[in-house]
């Protein structure tokens, strides 16, 4: 059973590498506004992560001050 699984994984891996190695035309277009939207998304995710990190650290500090809670 294990050898069959390894055989399938090897075959899928070889197919994935082969698909990445071949050349295909892109046929895609990204307008200039897309880059700005991606930067805004990353900035919003960063700010949201900072607020979440502040909430988690304040929770840990409260637990440290009052361990019986």
Kindly summarize this structure in a few lines.
By secondary structure, the chain is mainly α.
Task: Give a written overview of the molecule.
- With 69 residues, the protein is mainly α.
- It is built from 2 helices and no strands.
- The longest helix is centred in the last third of the chain and has 34 residues, at 32-65.
- The radius of gyration is 24 Å and the shape is flat.
- The termini are far apart.
- The model has no long low-confidence stretch (mean pLDDT 83).
Averaged pLDDT:
83
The geometry reads as flat
What is the H-and-E element order?
Answer: HH
Oligomer: single chain
> What is the number of beta strands?
0
Class inferred from helices and paired strands: mainly alpha
Uncertain segments are none
End-to-end distance, in Å?
A: 51 Å
| Helical coverage, percent range | over 70%
Main sheet: strands, sense, barrel: none
Give descriptors for this structure:
single chain, 69 residues, mainly alpha, 2 helices, 0% strand, flat
Provide the fold topology.
Layout: H1 2-21, H2 32-65
